[in-house]
Amino acid sequence: MLRSDAPTEGGISLIAITRRSSRPPVFAVPGVGGNVLAFADLARALGPDQAFFALQSVGVDGTREPLQTIEAMARLYLSEVRAIRPRGPYALIGVCFGATVAFEMARQIGESGDNVAFLGLLDPTSIGGEKAGEPVQSVPRVLARARAAGAFAQGRLQLYRREMAGLGYRDRVDFVAQKVANLLRRTIGRGSVDDVRLEMSLSNVYRANLAALQHFERKPINGYVKVIAIFQTPRHARARFEVDWLRELPGEGVRIMVPGKDSGDMLSGANARILADALAPQLKKAMSQE
């Protein structure tokens, strides 16, 4: 695939992690960083019989500008979901920031007259809507890129400062010389320049997603959701919530505790396998014909 010049299969955001299976697909929305790689362990733990698709934020690859609102994200994602599964019932999951997007997708599905079988919220964000009702300010592309470059440079300088803190004078000189040499190589090597550009694109997506969350005004889901499950890590369960997720959701939801320091740790390694064991029966219950 890497050697081929042919375009990759799929739309703007939809990424197939596990494609062929005997079970109805799960569609997953990642956290505020927008990258779907975090779902790899969970999809693997659910097994090859569970189709698993993830929805990556627009702009992660740097070819497009990020979307500015949660509603626009949900509309785009649903258009690509329906290309795979034209009609419900649908199984949706969202992690942290992505829980809000999955919530809005469920609302739009209900509004269209279709239905959601399963809505799973993984450590759903405790914030959102602080600037609801205020207009979203569109940032010119040049300014957005300048901000991303500034954030990248600031982050690297802070990293270098921490790395040099324990070094002697001679080692500091060698450290700076090495970084200058790396910079010169990057100006010549296209691959390294692309790496920096990708990192800046991820930073740009992060800020856009956070702003969209702050401006999002939740509206009730006017539709039926068969199974609602909130999966929380112990630390997240103790957090002070600005958003009362159980009150926001239609019907009764089940709250399930799973291990992990945060939503990223919840999705990694052995924790992902435990999460999959808790998630699988909820999916089975939701997608059954009973």
Q: Could you give a quick summary of the protein structure above?
A:
The protein contains ten helices and seven strands.
Topology overview:
Blueprint: E1 14-18, E2 23-29, H1 40-46, E3 50-55, H2 70-84, E4 90-95, H3 97-111, E5 116-122, H4 141-164, H5 169-188, H6 190-215, E6 225-232, H7 234-237, H8 245-248, E7 254-257, H9 263-266, H10 269-287
Parallel strand pairs: 2-3, 2-4, 4-5, 5-6, 6-7
Antiparallel strand pairs: 1-3
Structure notes:
This protein is of the alpha/beta class and 290 residues long. It folds into 2 domains: 14-134 and 214-287, 3-Layer(aba) Sandwich (Rossmann fold); 141-212, no CATH class. Helices cover 48% and strands 15% of the residues. The protein contains 10 helices and 7 strands. The protein has a 7-stranded mixed beta sheet with strand order 1-3-2-4-5-6-7, sandwiched between helices. Strand 4, helix 3 (97-111) and strand 5 (116-122) form a beta-alpha-beta unit. The termini are far apart.
